[in-house]
Design goal:
Blueprint: E1 2-10, E2 14-23, E3 26-31, E4 39-41, E5 46-47, H1 58-64, H2 76-89
Parallel strand pairs: 1-4, 1-5
Antiparallel strand pairs: 1-2, 2-3
């Protein structure tokens, strides 16, 4: 199937006009495509990808474990208490 002249939106904030050729359940080509059978014109319509996120951010998660999360603290006293506890728990690292 061919979708023509579609406005393709791909995060973060990138859009482009192109044709999309789909075979089975896969996108096989993007860009200006010579039109085969099964054409659908999507002029001035927005096409969004399937938003299938097949990756995870292990590095970012791992790094988040190194730092103190103060987002739930509701007072300066609570922030100081959390920092003090975190510093004691991680003293062997040499940094807070």
């Amino acid at each position: 199937m061919l979708f023509t002249d579609a406005l393709i939106h791909s995060p973060p904030d990138k859009s482009a006009r192109a044709d999309i050729l789909i075979e089975g359940e896969r996108i096989v080509k993007l860009g200006k495509i010579i039109t085969p059978e099964g054409i659908r014109t999507y002029k001035n319509k927005i096409v969004l990808p399937g938003y299938i996120d097949s990756h995870i951010h292990l590095l970012e998660y791992g790094l988040s474990l190194l730092f103190l999360d103060l987002r739930e603290a509701t007072s300066a006293q609570e922030v100081l208490g959390k920092i003090s506890s975190f510093a004691a728990e991680t003293a062997d690292r040499g940094f807070v």
